[in-house]
Amino acid sequence: MASMRAFRLAYDGTDYYGFQRQPDVPTVEDAVFDALRSLEVLDQDADKPDGYAAAGRTDRGVSALAQTIAFEAPDWLEPRALNAELPADVRAWASADAPDGFHATHHASRREYTYHLHAPPSSVDDERFVAACDALSGPHDFHNLTPDEHNTERAPTLEATRDGDYLVLTVTAGGFARELVRRLVSLARRVGTGDASLEAVDRALAPEPLPGHEGIPPAPPEPLVLTGVDYSDPDLEFEIDEQAAESAHDVFETRRIDRQTTARVAGDIAAGVRSVDRPDE
């Protein structure tokens, strides 16, 4: 018998064109639906599961720790069963029984994104960066920081902490306009490096459209992670599937080591190029 269930998903978005389905390109949502078809939870000709919704629409290259989807699912469909048909870079790790009518998008009360910005202290002034984050926090119309033309009023909170050569920026809000988090990062970074004054934040938040040469492009997507989605319903209690969570840990730890090794190789090449003996000029 099917009933509404919610699932937490973690995924590495590097090889996907975002979460939401698009024609002719791989997306996380396509991977989930293909897994459900393989498990015969979703009919081969069905567009999506009954009651289906997702908490966030992450862009191409963006990853997630706590993407949340919900749909009518059979009782036996636990995260470990879903993982058996998902690709390795998409892992379900927790689930919850959801009330009838639950909507993973509309009922989310808080979303949290984390951006890992490479910003050595020698290149970014932390006080200026934090001042920009403070100015961008709170209710504003962010029409200059998103391609969306409607519903651009948001009330994010931006908090930055120093971790070695990185500034870890956490952005929370009830919801986000498209590309908003990555454009917030870009603008705060400009202020932090001194490429822009704090007045640039005021101009970006002003009612007037920014002229083209003052436009704020989005920061790269790969350092961005959807790290949290909260719901106000007290009866929605996620239970971690220990086997599935361990599988997810192993997958992403292996990826971390692989990329660390790749970074070492690139570092050796960069150092070698700089140290190569050059002919006398």
TrEMBL record:
Pfam families per the UniProt record, alphabetical: PseudoU_synth_1 (PF01416)
InterPro entries membership: PsdUridine_synth_cat_dom_sf (IPR020103), PsdUridine_synth_TruA (IPR001406), PsdUridine_synth_TruA_a/b_dom (IPR020097), PsdUridine_synth_TruA_C (IPR020095), TruA/RsuA/RluB/E/F_N (IPR020094)
Domain Pseudouridine synthase I TruA alpha/beta residues, every copy: 132-232
EC numbers for this chain: 5.4.99.12
Superkingdom field: Archaea
Gene3D superfamilies per UniProt: Pseudouridine synthase I, catalytic domain, C-terminal subdomain (3.30.70.660), Pseudouridine synthase I, catalytic domain, N-terminal subdomain (3.30.70.580)
Catalyzed reactions: uridine(38/39/40) in tRNA = pseudouridine(38/39/40) in tRNA
Keyword tRNA processing: yes
Family label: Belongs to the tRNA pseudouridine synthase TruA family.
Name by which UniProt lists this protein: tRNA pseudouridine synthase A
